[in-house]
């Protein structure tokens, strides 16, 4: 499947919905943004993602598409920019190896983070949203790093700040598809720890250990979620002041609304760090979303190994994957005051999110474009170790800081 054709289809539909001659069929095209046969199987037939003309998103329900068109779209047509079916997302399970009481920061060392820590640069005052699975906000190394919503009173069952979310004191959950697995997924907590685990309270050292985390869960314990839930989690993250959003997951093949949400984030100056995926394929040829969007505010990340080579399972792409970062045998936090090793581009992406937070804390006036430029221009490229990514290198935040100092004196 050709990536450029797919993205062109997304843009074309978005343009049709945004311009004149608006009708229910232009704002809600039945075949979505992609191949209709692929889309139909994933559609949630009674849920609809609505993007309004002011750029905001809501997820609505109706008995079916005909009823939704008649009773919801037609009366509000001029206010609506685009509609598509909500769609299911299923993330792959990441194996973990429990490793309590161990300290292993090989990845943080490899990317040069200790050099910035020694200068007092640790991610201060930078908010990073973890749009992912459950984040254990009670974990001793995570709790101090949560960006608490002080406008909320915790656990009173009320929406104190009027943002539409009840009790989002420690973040919010947007999971709308129930599942029967009572055991919390470790994925979100592991990602959060790579970014910001507070080394004063345990054995894991986050890349940006004084940054602030905004948990925004949309993936259930069984790894399932929906496109609409993801869009709402992204929107919430922006409303809470996130400068960086970490997206260690892949989406459905029908992604017009997801791309539109990323574009809205771009307009707000938010940098989105995306995992390339773990299928061992070239996403320039076989797209995976959001990894293959290629937007200006996006960095897509492949995984490097302990020996500093490309892992065999990491997705790649000389056009749409930008950098590599450590993603093999990564120690981080997991629920229940524990730690564990995991592998995946899901672990590589938060290395880059943490690196971006370090840079932004050192130069708070930098733009997302300048942070991205600093990271991409400073990678380590070792002969014989070239990575199949746009820069051919693995990130080095120490060198990135030198680039950023030239861009933002």
UniProtKB/TrEMBL annotation:
<feature type="active site" description="Charge relay system">
    <location>
        <position position="187"/>
    </location>
</feature>
<feature type="active site" description="Charge relay system">
    <location>
        <position position="346"/>
    </location>
</feature>
<feature type="active site" description="Charge relay system">
    <location>
        <position position="132"/>
    </location>
</feature>
<dbReference type="InterPro" id="IPR000209">
    <property type="entry name" value="Peptidase_S8/S53_dom"/>
</dbReference>
<dbReference type="GO" id="GO:0004252">
    <property type="term" value="F:serine-type endopeptidase activity"/>
</dbReference>
<feature type="domain" description="Peptidase S8/S53">
    <location>
        <begin position="123"/>
        <end position="379"/>
    </location>
</feature>
<dbReference type="InterPro" id="IPR023828">
    <property type="entry name" value="Peptidase_S8_Ser-AS"/>
</dbReference>
<protein>
    <submittedName>
        <fullName>Alkaline serine protease</fullName>
    </submittedName>
</protein>
<dbReference type="InterPro" id="IPR022398">
    <property type="entry name" value="Peptidase_S8_His-AS"/>
</dbReference>
<dbReference type="InterPro" id="IPR015500">
    <property type="entry name" value="Peptidase_S8_subtilisin-rel"/>
</dbReference>
<keyword id="KW-0720">Serine protease</keyword>
<comment type="similarity">
    <text>Belongs to the peptidase S8 family.</text>
</comment>
<dbReference type="InterPro" id="IPR034204">
    <property type="entry name" value="PfSUB1-like_cat_dom"/>
</dbReference>
<dbReference type="GO" id="GO:0006508">
    <property type="term" value="P:proteolysis"/>
</dbReference>
<dbReference type="InterPro" id="IPR051048">
    <property type="entry name" value="Peptidase_S8/S53_subtilisin"/>
</dbReference>
<dbReference type="InterPro" id="IPR036852">
    <property type="entry name" value="Peptidase_S8/S53_dom_sf"/>
</dbReference>
<keyword id="KW-0378">Hydrolase</keyword>
<dbReference type="Pfam" id="PF00082">
    <property type="entry name" value="Peptidase_S8"/>
</dbReference>
<keyword id="KW-0645">Protease</keyword>
């Amino acid at each position: 499947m050709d990536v450029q054709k797919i993205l062109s289809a997304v843009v074309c539909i978005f343009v049709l919905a945004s311009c004149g001659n608006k009708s229910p069929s232009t704002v809600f095209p039945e075949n979505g943004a992609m191949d209709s046969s692929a889309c139909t199987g994933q559609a949630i037939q009674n849920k609809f993602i609505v993007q309004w003309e002011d750029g905001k998103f809501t997820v609505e329900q109706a008995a079916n598409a005909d009823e939704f068109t008649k009773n919801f779209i037609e009366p509000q047509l001029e206010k609506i920019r685009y509609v598509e079916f909500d769609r299911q997302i299923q993330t792959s399970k990441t194996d973990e190896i429990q490793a309590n009481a161990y300290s292993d920061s090989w990845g943080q060392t490899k990317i040069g983070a200790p050099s910035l820590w020694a200068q007092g640069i640790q991610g201060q005052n930078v908010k990073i949203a973890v749009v992912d699975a459950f984040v254990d906000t009670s974990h001793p190394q995570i709790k101090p790093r949560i960006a608490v919503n002080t406008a909320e009173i915790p656990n009173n069952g009320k929406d104190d700040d009027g943002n539409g979310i009840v009790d989002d004191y420690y973040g919010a959950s947007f999971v709308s598809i129930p599942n029967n697995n009572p055991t919390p997924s470790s994925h979100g907590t592991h990602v959060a720890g790579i970014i910001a685990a507070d080394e004063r309270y345990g054995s894991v050292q986050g890349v940006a250990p004084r940054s602030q985390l905004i948990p925004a869960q949309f993936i259930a314990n069984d790894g399932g979620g929906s496109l609409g839930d993801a869009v709402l989690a992204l929107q919430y993250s922006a409303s809470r002041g996130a400068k960086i959003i970490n997206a260690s997951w892949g989406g459905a093949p029908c992604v017009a609304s997801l791309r539109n949400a990323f574009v809205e984030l771009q307009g707000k100056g938010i940098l989105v760090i995306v995992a390339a995926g773990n299928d061992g394929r070239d996403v320039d040829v076989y797209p995976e979303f959001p990894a293959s969007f290629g937007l200006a505010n996006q960095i897509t990340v492949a995984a490097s190994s302990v020996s500093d080579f490309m892992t065999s399972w990491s997705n790649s792409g000389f056009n749409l994957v930008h950098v590599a970062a450590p993603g093999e045998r990564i120690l981080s936090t997991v629920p229940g005051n524990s730690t564990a090793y995991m592998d995946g581009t899901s672990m590589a992406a938060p290395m880059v999110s943490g690196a971006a937070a370090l840079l932004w804390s050192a130069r708070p006036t930098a733009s997302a474009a300048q942070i991205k430029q600093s990271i991409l221009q400073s990678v380590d490229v070792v002969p014989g170790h070239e990575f199949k990514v746009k820069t051919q290198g693995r990130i080095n935040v120490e060198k990135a800081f030198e680039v950023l100092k030239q861009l933002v004196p």
